[in-house]
Amino acid sequence: METVIIETGNQQGIRESVSLAVDYLEKGSIVALPTETVYGLAANALDAKACAKIFEAKERPEFDPLIVHVSGEKMLRTIADIPEQIEATLSTLINEFWPGALTFILPKKEIVPEIVTSGLDTVAVRRSKNPIFAEIINTFELPIAAPSANRFGSISPTSANAVLSELSGKVPLIIDGGACSEGVESTIIKIESVTGRKKPSIQILRPGPVTPEMLKKFGKIEKNPKSKTSSKEPTSPGQLDSHYAPITPLRIVSSPDTFTPEPSKKYALLSYRGQKKDGYLELCEWVQIETLSPGSGKLPEAAVRFFFALRKLDQLGVDEIISEPIPERGIGLAIMDRLKRASHKYS
Ligand code: TXA
Ligand code: MG
What we know:
Order of helices and strands: EHEEHEHHEHEHEHEEEHEEEEHEH
Distance between the termini: 37 Å
Strand order of the largest sheet: 2-3-7-4-6-5-9-10-11
Strand content: 15-25%
Oligomer: single chain
Helix content: 25-40%
Shape: globular
Bound molecules: threonylcarbamoyladenylate, magnesium ion
């Protein structure tokens, strides 16, 4: 299969690519689309055969369910049941954060094929704020399943070229909407009412751009209560210890004095803010240094550059990528979550 990249460019280019993408979705094909977090590999979420193509292209195991995108609350209600006890909180969160990088786990309606939810009775739902994606789903008028457009377990794509290097020959069409504005995947939450308590509990199953600080006024935050499920078949999907992994071994060095370079080896550095005083820049002769947010270090900027920088360092053919730790606050929590999973198989 040949993979075609369509650049959107001006207004007319956007209109043409929207209509092409919708054609592909209507005929049951997969297509890679930009979202504000990472690029997604999209298919009609109500068409089991089309969704099977996502699993095939990504080489994704069937136990890992897909995220379903909707155009708004009305479409959400066609695929999910909303328990009365959480309805008010859900509606407040939707008003506050949609369209945006917040995914809700909700009881699924029968219309959603089993393959989408890996047989679970819940479905993960979000609404993207990327204008091209929004235009496509508004025109298509049906929910769109779209997990990240990378091979299973590897680095998430934040540009059309990254999708190409992940899925060339596996997807017929990539809509190039430029670089993703958030850079890490959506926050996934589950809202649960607690008897005797006014505020519900909000479980963060995957940290992302919508941070605990932003969510805490809406409920009691529980961070990833089941994060200890491991390796192959997680009871809480999406929590695989090893994920987002480069081909090159990756190590997080939490303090510069704990790193002793081996003279025969070549290293590259993933630096948070590229400052000498942090103690990493002169630890050895780095083949390359990628800095996530030069200067004072801004976490949202670091998030946007993170997967892009990791992918760049992975192409150098060095023996090891060394990463500085990222401050674990705000969106830094999501970056460190990805870094830890990316380094897991090498630790
Ligand atoms: O930002 C995002 O969420 C991107 C863009 C493309 O939308 N998508 C994304 O999809 O990150 P994916 O497939 O790479 O990650 C979705 C995660 C998976 O880890 C999956 O296990 C989890 O969501 N998930 C899906 N359905 C679930 C469910 N019913 N219960 C718990 N976790 C679920
Ligand atoms: Mg993914």
